[in-house]
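Hi L., both proteins are below.
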Amino acid sequence: MTLRHYKIFVTVCDTMNMTSAAEQLYMSQSAVSQSVAELEGHYGVRLFERLSRKLYLTEAGQKLLGYARQMIRMDSEVESNMKALHQSGTVRVGASVTVGACVLPALAADFQNRNPLVNVEVVEDNTEQIENLILQDRVDLGLVEGEVTSSDLFSRPFQNDELVLICSPSQRFAGCQDVEPKELEQESFIIREKGSGTRRTFEDRMTEHNLTWRVAWTCNNADTIKSAVAAGLGVSVISERAVTDEVKSGLLLAKRVRGITFQRTFKLIYHKNKYITEPIQQFIKLL
């Protein structure tokens, strides 16, 4: 039996007249009668007594009426609640460290202003870990700075980024307009952990130019790197976005390396089989 059968049955019960029920439902009287007959045949009971051209509910009819009203009410609630989810829900975002610090806060605030019924949940980690979280369906979308390796993930660029060499004002590069590439081989570097997109970009560009480097510190966040460099413990290559305030204040100096550009692209990633809900689609559009 279908919900349509129950709706017809309830309308007949409310009017106690086949003709009136048919008019309310914009159906023929024969179609209404057929639907009631199908219900009676399915359950093997009489739902109405037909006496002197009048309808009277039987005991079975009374019982079924309660169930039918409940099913129709539940269907209405499901319809209402599921449509509400179309406008609400949760978007789970995994962001690599630079994106999480420099891009995502303003983006998430803008998104929630436009979509006040949608929650945004954020996990920040390096690119490798965000890739794993997507594969485990623990986040819906990833915003990363590194390359992903799984063929199950869809990836597309959404913003360009450039890394710069940073040093303290007391470091020997302070007076240089540009730094010669070979000079980098004499420095101690403070770099991100393995799996980080920033580290991958740095290592790839250095390798492309046949340069070696010495690692003094390995850090899993930009703040520690900036503090260590400011203290004169080494130099680093980091997103220009991440050191805007420190460069303005004079705490750090940003330098270009002659002939080397540490460019990369921030990427949106998600599983190729991911069901894209309306809130997720809106987030992607805003991105």
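That was the first. Here is the second:
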Amino acid sequence: MVGKKPNNVEANNTNNLPQPEPLSRRVVRGGIWVFALRITNRGLGFIRTIILARLLAPHDFGVLGIAMLAIATLETFSQTGFHAALIQKKENVESYLDTAWIVSVIRGIVLFLILFFSAPVIAKFFNCPQATLIIKVIAVSTLLSGFRNIGILFFQKELEFNKQFLYELSATLVDLTVAVTLAFILRNVWALVWGGLAANFVRLFMSYMLHSYRPRIRFEKEKFQELFGFGRWVLGSSILVFLITQGDDIFVGKMLGVTALGLYQMAYLISNLPATEITHVISQVTFPAYSKLQDDLPKLRDAYLKVLQLTAFISIPLAGGIFILAPEFTQIFLGNKWMPMVPAIQVLVLAGLIRSIAATTGPIFHGVGKPRIDTVWQVIRLIVLIALIFPFTVRWNILGASAAVLFSILASSLGFSFRVIRITKCGIKNFGKMIILPLLNAMVMVSIILIAKGSIQPIGFWEFFLLVGVGLISYFLITSLFDRFLNYGIQKLIKQDLAFR
């Protein structure tokens, strides 16, 4: 009897200890924080874009686009993939952090030097001498990025997205304040330049304010080689994604000029809003979650189908609304000088919709340690893009470039979908159900908005938001019918699985 007492006490003490929070709840909480961050950032970014588009010309955005393309090119081709490798690892990764930080610092310094001294060559390639000084100034951003605290990767690894929220929001607020203020004063591209640079200074500062880890100057060859073993596939995929997502910008800027590049990039920004936001949220939240579930196929499959269902439910109506209201949005909020990009928006929004669905697959491939799949299908996408972009752009200008992007995304997305069905064993029927029902719903919504547009003329600021409201109400009413009669289940997902309990 005496010998059993300590065990009982130990058991009671164990029961009284705080129990670890379930992974599903941490994922939900993390997802809510990330959605809140993206909604806030996009809201502020929307205000920034409208103000700057009114004050500046497409040519200004095109000049900045050239500088950003130069930076994106070098950053992509020097990507280490260490960040993803550290998140994917199940064991403690602190012993790897100093090596990863040293590589980041060296990379930042090298990129800065290359950009600074190659700026005249890049500007000459695009026949835009004005871009030379801008590239040199913006190159400082790569230097700042290299010195950021490596400890911030734990925001994503440990699903601490409340800290990620503060980290990103602080930079967004600074960018908005500086860029808009200087746009009123300068009325040129330098407002965009100084806004972006100020945001990167804030990111560097906040990375050390929000995480206690302090990197040291220490490099271990074995740790480097181990991280690079995973990171090389991330590097390969990143290079391919860059060529696919930025190659069309380079082609348009070189072939059609700086103004056309400004129009094309703005069209891509607006049309790919669903894909960009959904992709960002999905990758940040689900990649670390899938990494923890990689050895439990039933839970992995269930988690993936829920993510796919929620993604389709949100992104499909957003894409439909952008497609049907693109002319009115551009006219009302951006002005007549941006109207030539409307057809490109409508084609690119279809590409963005497909990309948002395909975005659910990447975190699965990386989470289960198979990044090679992502790389292979990105190669196929690149081949299709290369084959189509020249003849399409020559014939239809930025509309043709948009069509080439659409067909390339469609080709790779089919491959991504079949591979994720095989890995999760979810079945084509279950996979298709999550997409077809919201697609039918959105088609009805678009038809209703189109009918309403015909009866509301002219369409001004308030009429535009009335049409948005009509679309939202019709979409949610039809969703209720699908839930009741077709067992769609989205209301259950939102009420039960996405609620704090």
